[in-house]
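Consortium newsletter contribution from the modelling node. Members have asked for a concrete example of what our holo predictions look like. Here is one, prepared for the zinc ion complex that several groups have been discussing at recent meetings.
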Amino acid sequence: MALLFALSIPVYPFCADADADAEARDYRFSDAHLHFVDYFQASDGPAALIAAMDAAQVDHAMLTGMSVVKKWAESEPQRPEFVFGDDAAVYWYSLTDVIVARGVLSLPAAQRARLHPFICGFNPTDKNAVDHVRRLLEWYPGLWQGIGEITTRHDDLTALTDGEPARANHPALDPVYALAAEHELPVLIHSNITSVRMKEPLYLEEFEEAIAKHPRTRFIWAHAGTSAAINRRIDLEFLDDEIERLLQAYPNLWIDLSWTVLDEYLLESGDDVNSHWLRIIERHPDRFMLGSDLIGSFDKLSEKLTAYEGLLDALSPQDAKRVARDNFLSVLPPSARAK
Ligand SMILES: [Zn+2]
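And here is the predicted structure:
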């Protein structure tokens, strides 16, 4: 019994210094995964984004476009409203980066300083992809602070994408990762750990090869390798052990805990935090970050980030602040790191 008690999870909200704790628990956030536009490249716009950030206590946000656009195909009877609303394809859409740049540059400097734009508008299977990244760095000097979200293995979305399936270890991405290291730009990458049917880490090797081959490139793994489509079909029983193993093996890896991993793995019924996941985060408190993964519409920003409060409350105040806000800032290029 004594041993069990010793291993129990500390309940920080009831610690002795209640005043200091209450102050520490007034969370400020960095959103490490936020799309300025949706799958039709539409957006509520930069003013709405800043207003939503203010309302949600989000000090900083990573800002990316959407690397693909949904086609309104001649064969479809209605104009699609959703990316999966019909059978029409999506295709790679480079203008998305210009849409992001124009949005950010339209804001006053103080608001711009809270946004951290990433380049994503390239086909990750094109061996010329790095040329697009170089062009954007040249066109908007000093603007870009990262690369991504690079979309590779992504179940239904991959199936709808014209051309060959993208993968994290595609030769087209090696020069992109190398350029990222050269400019100290973090890379946010979506790379599902498996398909929607296989109860084994079918695609993990692709992702692991990339992070092993590019140790000077800082990788953020979107959704910890999960997706909503996988969650509907399989329970990834190996996921937490693999995350722990990768964090130990690769100091250039960070984990984005956005919704598909939060809802399905971190939180159990009744919003209790899964104790195994909690311990992994406590052992690596500088390696996890939060993301809303909103696309073009920002009304739900507060709701998306409030959903992490149960997890943050279960961490020490110091670790909660790191995960909620500081870890994302720590991976940005040194010139862009905000206090
Ligand atoms: Zn995303």
